[in-house]
Design goal:
The structure holds 2 protein chains of 2 kinds.
Chain A (H helix, E strand, L loop, with lengths): L4 H10 L7 E4 L2 H11 L2 E5 L12 E4 L2 H11 L3 E2 L9 E2 L3 E5 L3 E12 L4 E7 L6 H7 L4 E6 L7 H11 L3 H21 L1 E12 L4 E3 L3 E4 L21 H8 L3 E4 L4 E5 L2 H13 L6 E4 L6 H12 L6 E8 L4 H15 L5 E7 L2 H11 L3 E3 L3 H13 L4
Parallel strand pairs in A: 14-16, 16-17, 17-18
Antiparallel strand pairs in A: 1-6, 2-3, 2-6, 4-5, 7-8, 7-10, 8-9, 10-11, 10-12, 13-15
Chain B lengths: L10 E4 L4 H13 L3 E5 L7 E2 L2 E4 L2 H8 L3 E4 L3 H13 L4 E4 L6 H11 L5 E4 L4 E4 L3 E4 L8 E8 L3 H12 L4 E6 L10 H10 L5 E7 L4 H12 L5 E6 L23 H9 L4 E2 L6 H11 L3 H4 L3
Parallel strand pairs in B: 1-2, 1-5, 2-4, 5-6, 6-7, 10-11, 10-12, 12-13, 13-14
Antiparallel strand pairs in B: 3-4, 8-9, 8-11
Helix pairs in contact in B: 3-4, 5-9, 6-7, 7-8
Classes of the chains: A alpha+beta, B alpha/beta.
Chain lengths: 388, 301
């Protein structure tokens, strides 16, 4: 799960990581009021994406009037950054934050090192720019330090990173503390990433997290109900959001063949096959292992109400998922919404005969397929026929 | 022969009294798996499908001499259950549970170093040595006893591959689903090594997907050690957009790394034939074993 910069900073403040003061504004007037109390400030668009500065989502305001003017334009704008893709994201709120005199910019993050089953601190004396760029052009400027999830963080980890990043001696103690708190927050909250870019040394000689990005491990959310309220569904694709309410793994794509598959690997392979056969999938949809009739029906509803979907292809190889349950879900969704597009169904695996029987007896106009290739061919064929 | 599980595998089911645990215990028993005990804390003395239930893994092991365990435990408690199995010195543990927090698995992985337990999963379909033992959730009827090893990160895609082999009369020595999580037990290389050392496995089907570097490491291993055993592969996610997690926590292309194209190139460069679409996995395997002159040997009687 991703959260906004202002939320990330709030959490970091709770963990004793120094962040500049800031006020969230939903309107230009609120931005004006915020700027009045803060003074010279920076207005920052709050969307779930990096690279906002280059897209015009970060602007300096000397006066409250200027802040209002900037916020007026920024709120409601479609912000396009390197990370949003061409379609961009609508800005609904801005963070008004105190302007800071910066002496030097650093990069600092804590994330999970999957290969080594530990945490890793990544730091660089080259902050402010995209870290991918730095690591590509100047890998020697990137500092990494592993932290055991077992023993946790030791102060020497921090001193080691500070030394290699070239943190000035007088700031090292504060730096080590910031890192300790980042690691603590990661472990406490199941963060998959805490990134401060830039971490700055101010003109007054203090360390400050000017920007903040925090992502959470979705699987960890079950033990952090307090994080649920940080979720901003406006930032999510509405179909992906609806799918998530039913624990479906769904991702919007650009084609016209709606796919419903059990298992992530098979779902990807189904997309691959459709592509290779000359078609184009409208989505990735993995039902997951613990599916129910309701979830199947909800998944189908997402596909059936998607105007881009001209053909539906269902590909099920039941293991933990039972084919009869899938079939019942199909029947219930079709009787509720009506089957208006060609639907190709391939069933195999646990309780396959019972599943096929339910479909046959339903009287629905379903095109059966004997295997994956057959189903993909029929789906691509139907999609080409402009079958609407 | 087979790897990891066979007729002598005596299985504990952790979480046997839950819905999934119960259903799959029934399925595994029907397949012929020797399930000797179940574990659910607080439910000792009960029975599920005739299998006695114990409070702890240690108690179950002491009473039955079990040498393997399979977990159907909710994600919040799954890591605890794995720790319990490790501490009870169960040699082989299969974790089916999906959505285990990453940091939990990181702790498990660290704890396992130097211990006597081999872990498969989590978020995996399990393992089957056809005709001998099924520890998992795969439909047993699609499998056939034989000589081709299957190793895969995906569940249902593994069934797809197995099915394609079986309908061509080609049985499997063992099929292993290693799971789609970024931090997990056995890796592709670990399983390839076992297949390579198993004299009864003549060829291997390996199924990978985008994300991570397990397939690239597998290619390295194949290059060094598997000159004599044909390996056929498929990589899922060739059409996946970067930056989007495709269901499995580990299946994501980020920063240009973990792409299907990169993995396919790595495998092809060491002589692995990679099927372009999943429906061709069976055909490609047949072609590879014919080329190696072992087609007849691989046919199940």
């Amino acid at each position: 799960m991703k959260i906004h910069e202002y939320q990330a900073k709030e959490l970091m403040r709770e963990y004793g990581i120094p962040v500049p003061s800031g006020i969230l504004a939903l309107t230009a007037d609120e931005a004006y009021e915020a700027a009045k109390s803060i003074g010279p400030c920076v207005i920052k668009a709050q969307i779930h994406s990096g690279g906002r500065g280059k897209g015009g989502g970060v602007k300096f305001a000397k006066t409250p009037e200027e802040a209002r003017e900037i916020a007026e334009k920024m709120i409601g704008m479609n912000l396009v950054t390197k990370q949003t893709g061409a379609e961009g994201k609508i800005v609904h709120k801005v963070l008004v934050t105190e302007a800071t005199d910066v002496k030097k910019e650093y990069y600092l993050s804590v994330t999970v090192d999957n290969a080594n089953a530990c945490l890793v601190i990544i730091g660089s004396g080259e902050g402010g720019t995209e870290i991918e760029e730095v690591s590509e052009k100047h890998p020697e400027l990137i500092v990494t330090e592993k932290v055991s999830v077992y023993q946790g963080y030791h102060a020497y980890n921090g001193y080691e990173v500070a030394r290699r990043m070239g943190i000035p001696a007088e700031l090292t103690k504060d730096f080590v503390k910031i890192l300790a708190n980042m690691v603590k927050m990661t472990m406490d909250k199941d963060c998959s990433l805490i990134e401060i870019n830039p971490l700055v040394e101010t003109a007054e000689g203090k360390l400050l997290a000017l920007d903040a990005k925090v992502n959470f491990d979705d699987s960890g959310l079950v033990r952090h109900p307090e994080l649920e309220e940080l979720r901003d569904v406006e930032e999510e694709d509405p179909k992906e959001y609806k799918a998530s309410l039913y624990d479906l793994n769904y991702i919007s794509l650009f084609g016209n063949i709606g796919c419903l598959v059990n298992g992530a690997g098979l779902a990807m392979a189904t997309m691959d096959t459709i592509n290779k056969f000359g078609g184009s999938p409208a989505n990735f949809l993995d039902l997951g292992g613990s599916t129910t009739e309701d979830k199947v029906a909800a998944a189908l509803e997402i596909l059936m109400t998607d105007p881009h979907v001209e053909v539906i292809m269902i590909n099920i190889f039941g293991g933990i998922v039972k084919c009869d349950l899938i079939a019942s879900g199909i029947v219930s969704a079709c009787s509720k919404l009506g089957l208006k597009v060609p639907m190709i169904v391939r069933l195999e695996g646990t309780n396959v005969d019972a599943g096929k029987k339910i479909l046959a007896e339903s009287g629905l106009n379903i095109i059966p397929a004997k295997d994956l290739a057959d189903a993909a061919h029929k789906a691509v064929e139907a999609a080409k026929g402009g079958a609407k | 022969m087979s790897i990891l599980v066979d007729k002598n595998t005596k299985v504990i089911v952790q979480g046997i009294t839950g819905g999934q645990g119960r259903f799959h215990t029934e399925q595994m028993l029907a397949y012929g798996t020797n399930i000797v005990a179940g574990v659910t804390p607080g439910k000792a003395g009960q029975e599920v499908c005739g299998v006695p239930v114990f409070d702890t893994v240690k108690a179950a092991k002491e009473a039955t001499g079990a040498n393997a365990s399979i977990l159907y435990v909710p994600p919040k408690f799954a890591a605890d259950s794995i720790f319990e199995a490790i501490d009870a010195e169960i040699p082989f543990v299969v974790c089916i549970t999906e959505h285990i927090p990453v940091l939990d698995m990181a702790k498990v992985k660290n704890y396992m170093v130097g211990k006597n337990t081999v872990l498969l999963g989590g978020n995996c379909p399990g393992i089957i040595s056809p005709g001998k033992c099924k520890m998992g959730i795969m439909p047993g009827y699609i499998c056939k006893e034989g000589h081709v090893g299957v190793v895969s990160r995906s569940g249902t895609l593994t069934y797809e591959a197995i099915n394609q082999l079986s309908v061509r009369g080609i049985g499997q020595s063992t099929a292993v689903g290693i799971g789609g999580d970024p931090i997990k037990g056995l890796s592709h290389v670990d399983v390839l090594k076992m297949f390579n050392e198993d004299p009864d496995t003549y060829a291997v089907v390996m199924i990978g997907e985008i994300g991570g570097s397990g397939e690239e490491e597998a290619a390295e291993y194949i290059k060094e050690h598997m000159k004599d055993k044909p390996v056929v592969a498929f990589i899922a996610g060739q059409s996946a957009p970067p930056g989007k997690r495709m269901g499995h926590a580990g299946a994501i292309i980020s920063g240009g790394k973990g792409t299907a194209a990169g993995k396919i190139a790595a495998l092809e460069s060491v002589g692995v034939s990679v099927a372009p679409t999943p429906d061709l996995i069976g055909e490609y395997l047949v072609e590879a074993i014919k080329k190696a002159g072992i087609y007849e040997k691989c046919l199940s009687k």
